[in-house]
């Protein structure tokens, strides 16, 4: 009797094996991707000037003051503080800060720091409709 039980179990196993075989894929759908030598982000491209940025960011609105800061670095984030309003924030890589629109066209001061090194890279005046273009180490008028 023990042999008949073993035969029955083996026959059930034999019936179950084709089900498992059908569940396996008959071919692979993995696609191989070949490595390339080109850089996906060759550099940051922003508006040519601060005035161009202000014109496109305003979208037809009549703004008196526009004080943009463009982070032209693809490596670091920048931190800024406008004064005397003390409006502050972070500018990610390859991004222009457009949060400083104003009803006043008076030049204002700004301090910009490199978050990675904690170094202040600019402390001075930012001009209306000119703004600043910054990288990891410095900021210049965005003209």
Could you estimate the helical fraction of the residues in percent?
A: 10-25%
- Which CATH first-tier class of the domain at 50-141 would you pick? Mainly Beta
Poorly predicted runs: 27-42
The major pleated sheet works out as: 4 strands, mixed
The averaged pLDDT comes out at: 77
Helix vs. strand class: alpha+beta
CATH architecture of the domain at 50-141: Sandwich
CATH topology group of the domain at 50-141:
Immunoglobulin-like
Strand content is 25-35%
Strand order of the largest sheet: 5-2-9-10
Shape: globular
Our count of helices gives 2
Overall radius of gyration: 31 Å
Instruction: Give the ordered list of helices and strands.
Output: HHEEEEEEEEEE
Beta strand count: 10
Task: Report how far the terminal alpha carbons are from each other.
Answer: 96 Å
Protein name: Secreted protein
Organism: Parashewanella curva
Signal peptide: 1-23
Keywords: Signal
Please describe what this structure looks like.
By secondary structure, the protein is an alpha+beta fold. The protein has a domain at 50-141: Immunoglobulin-like, CATH 2.60.40. Helices cover 22% and strands 28% of the residues. It is built from 2 helices and 10 strands. The chain has helices spanning 2-23, 50-58, and strands at residues 65-66, 69-71, 78-83, 88-91, 96-97, 101-102, 108-114, 119-126, 132-134, 139-141. A 4-stranded mixed β-sheet has the order 5-2-9-10, with no helix packed on it. The longest helix is centred in the first third of the chain and has 22 residues, at 2-23. The radius of gyration is 31 Å and the shape is globular. The model is unreliable at 27-42 (pLDDT under 50). This is Secreted protein. Residues 1-23 form the signal peptide. Keywords: Signal.
């Amino acid at each position: 009797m023990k042999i008949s039980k073993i035969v029955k179990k083996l026959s059930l196993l034999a019936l179950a094996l084709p089900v498992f075989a059908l569940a396996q894929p008959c071919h692979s759908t993995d696609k191989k991707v070949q490595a390339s030598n080109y850089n996906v982000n060759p550099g940051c491209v922003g508006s040519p000037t601060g005035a161009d940025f202000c014109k496109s960011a305003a979208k037809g609105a009549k703004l008196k003051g526009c004080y943009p800061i463009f982070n032209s670095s693809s490596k670091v984030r920048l931190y800024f503080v406008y004064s005397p309003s003390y409006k502050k924030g972070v500018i990610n890589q390859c991004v222009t800060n457009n949060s400083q629109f104003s009803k006043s066209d008076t030049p204002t001061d700004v301090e910009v720091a490199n978050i990675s090194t904690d170094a202040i890279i600019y402390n001075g005046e930012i001009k209306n409709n000119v703004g600043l273009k910054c990288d990891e180490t410095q900021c210049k008028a965005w003209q």
